[in-house]
Design a protein that fits this description.
DUF6879 domain-containing protein, Endonuclease, Chain A, 180 residues, 8 strands, DUF6879, eight-stranded mixed β-sheet
Amino acid sequence: MAQLSDDDFRQHFSRAKRAFHLELKDSYHVDSEAEPFRKWRAGEHDDHAWRRPWQALVREHTSAGCLIQRVRVVTVPHTLYTRWLLDIAGDNVKAGEDIRYLPRHLTTDVDLPEEDCWLFDDEHLVLTMFPGDGRVGVFVATDNSHLLRRYLAARDRVWERAMPHAEYIHSPHMNAEPIT
C-alpha cells in the first residue's frame, strides 16, 4: 500500500471513465468542514467557497466523459452530519456527481468493507482511511486483488440499491428525527 498525495489522487480522475466513491461513516470531522458545519447548525450563511474546487474537478472530468458516482451508506435516523450533507449535496449533483444514499439497515447481506474507498474503473482501488476521530483522511492506493474484488462486489450491491439524492430527500427515511 502506498499513501498518495492529493495531486496523485486527483490524477486518477484524468485516466478514469468511472470514479466511484463509497462512504461508510455517519460522521466525519474533517478540519475543512468544521466551520461550515458549525454555520449550518447555527443557521448562519455559508458561501460554500470551500466546496468550489471539488465541484470544478467534478465538472472538468464529467464533461470529459468520466462518471463520478458516490454512495453514502447512512444510519437512519440520520446524524446531524448526514443531514448537513443531504442539505448541501445538491450542488455537487448539479456539478455532475451522481450521489446516492442507502440506509445501513438495508445492507445487512452486503459484505461492507471497513474503509471508505474510491474505485477507478474496475482496476484501481484507493482507500480513504481515517483514524478513529475522523479528523484527517489519507488516500492509500493498493494493488491487493482480493481487496479490489471485495470492494467491486460491495460497490455493485450498494449501487443497485441506493437511491439518487433527489429521490432520497423525499423518502420516508428523512422523517426520523436526527441523532444529535
